[in-house]
Amino acid sequence: MRRTTAITVACMTAAALTVTACGRSSDTGGTSAGQTGAAVSTGAAKGTITMWAMGAEGDKLPELAKDFEAANPGVKINVTAIPWDSAHDKFTTAITANKTPDLAMVGTTWMGEFAGLGALDPTPAQIDKSVFFDGAQKTTEVNGTSYGIPWYVETRVLFYRSDLAKKAGYDAAPTDQAGLKEMAKAMQTKAGAKWGIGLQAGGTGSWQTLMPFAWSNGADLTKDGGKAYNFDSPQVLEATKYYQSFFTDGISDKAAPATPTTEPDFASGKVPMFISGPWMMSAVEKVGGAGFKDKYNVAPIPAGSAGSSSFVGGSNLAVFKNTQNRDTAWKFVQWLADPKVQAKWYSLSTDLPSVKSAWQDPALAADKKLAVFGKQLETAKAPPSFSTWEQVVNQFDTELEKVTKTGSDPAAALKTVQQQADSIGTGQ
């Protein structure tokens, strides 16, 4: 799933979705492999649908939905905005009570759980999955069946103060992991930074900062043909040791405050590097003030043995099986994936498009910093779509905090995580 606070037009064009008739192969439960949703009818959309959306997306979507209503006279899109912090419980309660909306914005790490409960409608075959970033598309898939589409995406890259990097002897960010650590140290010794790089010292969501290093080493969080968790692999262990070394060597702050101070620390030069998503660009520029955008840059995650990879997040669009207006729900989903609509949505929300061709729009193509995110999305990866992921990853975050703050043995920590994961299971 993406951050908890967001920063972030007519019928579907053939460039985004192609239409071919196909019926549903089966309807035997939420996670049967290979299901295909029944074809959506042709022609204009009809009737009323209700959609749930979280955060700023819920506030801004009604404005965009007016274009769909204008192109489909008589259609009404009722958007209900709900807070991120209560969204998960609201969804599970609605699923249990069979009172779900027609469609919804769904966090990527919730897909396995909701599909496992049999609540989601499989994606119709006429939606061309190849138009989306591969890592994002995989977040919609549970046991080989796609349930929805990626709506918008985000990934994490390296933010660094380019002006301070020059003082440290660097004209550009390093391209490998060893170079990142050397540059972070030089930021302290030569550029006057208190901490070389801000890394999350465990706690909720810290796995999202660690895993880019592991994926860049070739890590796979599943094994046995994708049927089991795989936390204690050599690649994850190597990344965890590397991550720990920033704290044991005094390059990152193991006692960083629970409430992040990333923006002011970055603007002041106290912490001149960190890893985060695209919403942080406007955040640091606001704190840094006039001209600050010329004092920093972004770069891909420094490569490991398998290249450069990162975490892909964002949110998906899913249609619920209980919908009373399935065709219009899916037509709205299809429309939201049109490249032109995606580009307009970016202008309204700054949510990055999930459709690759939308990145050719001048509003995105002209921004060199955004281009780095677009390039990183080509290799970014998502966690497994197991329904128990949220439960299991909490243990990962807990053990990582012990590794960073108390110097616990990374191998023992990952063994504990693996044992817990094996005990909980995948939920399949």
Give the arrangement of secondary structure elements.
Layout: E1 48-54, H1 55-71, E2 76-82, H2 84-96, E3 103-107, H3 111-116, H4 134-138, E4 141-142, E5 145-146, E6 149-155, E7 157-160, H5 162-167, H6 177-189, H7 207-216, E8 222-223, E9 228-229, H8 234-248, H9 262-268, E10 273-276, H10 279-288, E11 297-299, E12 312-319, H11 326-336, H12 339-349, E13 352-353, H13 362-365, H14 368-377, H15 389-406, H16 410-424
Parallel strand pairs: 1-2, 1-3
Antiparallel strand pairs: 3-12, 4-5, 6-12, 6-13, 7-10, 7-11, 8-9
CATH class identity of the largest domain: Alpha Beta
User: Roughly how many Å apart are the termini?
Assistant: 21 Å
Sheet bearing the most strands, described? 6 strands, mixed
Question: Uncertain segments of ≥5 residues (pLDDT<50)?
Answer: 1-31
Task: Give me the number of helical elements.
Answer: 16
**Rg, nearest Å:** 22 Å
Strand order of the largest sheet: 2-1-3-12-6-13
GO cellular component, one term: ATP-binding cassette (ABC) transporter complex, substrate-binding subunit-containing
Region (Disordered): 407-428
Pfam family, one: SBP_bac_1
GO molecular function: maltose binding
